[in-house]
Amino acid sequence: MIKAITFDLDDTLWDIWPVVERAEILLHAWLTTRYPRIPERFTPLELRELSQEVIVACPEIAYDRTRLRKEALWLAARRVGYLEFDVESAFAVFFLARNAVEPFADVRPTLERLARHYMLASLSNGNADLRLIGLHDLFAFSLNAIDVGAAKPESLMFDRARQRLAVQPDQIVHVGDDPEHDVFGAAQAGFRTVWVNRTGRNWPGGLRADAEITTLVELEPVLTDWES
Ligand SMILES: [Mg+2]
């Protein structure tokens, strides 16, 4: 019997990269008015890429995308000579815009139907805020890498979810777009796996998911099949 379904968020329930790019442009514009030497030196993409330098210097915070963004902004500020920098306000500009996502049309209706039969939870490596996005009412709880202290595919987030759901791992189905983070990670934790492949990608190799779907509408027939 399947008791619970856990969902990845970014690129599973909405497209994230166009939204991140827009958030980076808005942050860049905000910096122009408050700390102009930063956007004079760095493009939005170069600011994003500073996160990679932060990861190299501090690999232990790589799982925390909020901290990475803030540290990258600090790095940029220092490089152009700002000794004081309001990183919280800068991050808030990015964060608000990063949460202006548009869930795919199939998301809310499907989750509403599934929530009548299963416990639903979200498991994300990103820093999406389901309250800002307006889907929090559909999930029993939400975990992300920052709360847990480790990103998928590590088993910690899956193990925490299983403990909170208080069911056996094979009674949980994890649904996500990332072959490694979602499919491999959830399979390692003993969950059943569904790969959401909305864009017709080829499977990159390794053990395949228990099921593959192209939209969330296809999830319910898969579950019905497994329950019968
Ligand atoms: Mg994803």
Condensed summary:
The protein has 228 residues and is of the alpha/beta class. It has helices at 17-34, 37-41, 44-57, 65-79, 87-98, 107-115, 130-133, 145-148, 156-165, 179-188, 219-227, and strands spanning 4-7, 119-124, 141-144, 172-176, 192-196, 211-213.
What does the model show?
The chain is α/β, with parallel strands linked by helices and 228 residues long. The protein has helices at 17-34, 37-41, 44-57, 65-79, 87-98, 107-115, 130-133, 145-148, 156-165, 179-188, 219-227; strands at residues 4-7, 119-124, 141-144, 172-176, 192-196, 211-213. The protein has 2 domains: 4-14 and 103-227, Rossmann fold, CATH 3.40.50; 17-98, Four Helix Bundle (Hemerythrin (Met), subunit A) (Up-down Bundle), CATH 1.20.120. It is 48% helix and 12% strand. Helix 7 (130-133) links the parallel strand 2 (119-124) and strand 3 (141-144). The longest helix is centred in the N-terminal third of the chain and has 18 residues, at 17-34. It is elongated, with a radius of gyration of 19 Å. The structure holds magnesium ion (MG). Residues 8, 10-12, 176-178 line the site of magnesium ion (MG).
Descriptors:
228 residues, alpha/beta, Rossmann fold, Four Helix Bundle (Hemerythrin (Met), subunit A), 2 domains, 6-stranded parallel beta sheet, 6 strands, binds magnesium ion
List the helices and strands and how they pair.
Elements: E1 4-7, H1 17-34, H2 37-41, H3 44-57, H4 65-79, H5 87-98, H6 107-115, E2 119-124, H7 130-133, E3 141-144, H8 145-148, H9 156-165, E4 172-176, H10 179-188, E5 192-196, E6 211-213, H11 219-227
Parallel strand pairs: 1-2, 1-4, 2-3, 4-5, 5-6
Helix pairs in contact: 1-3, 1-5, 3-4, 4-5
Residues 8, 10-12, 176-178 line the site of magnesium ion.
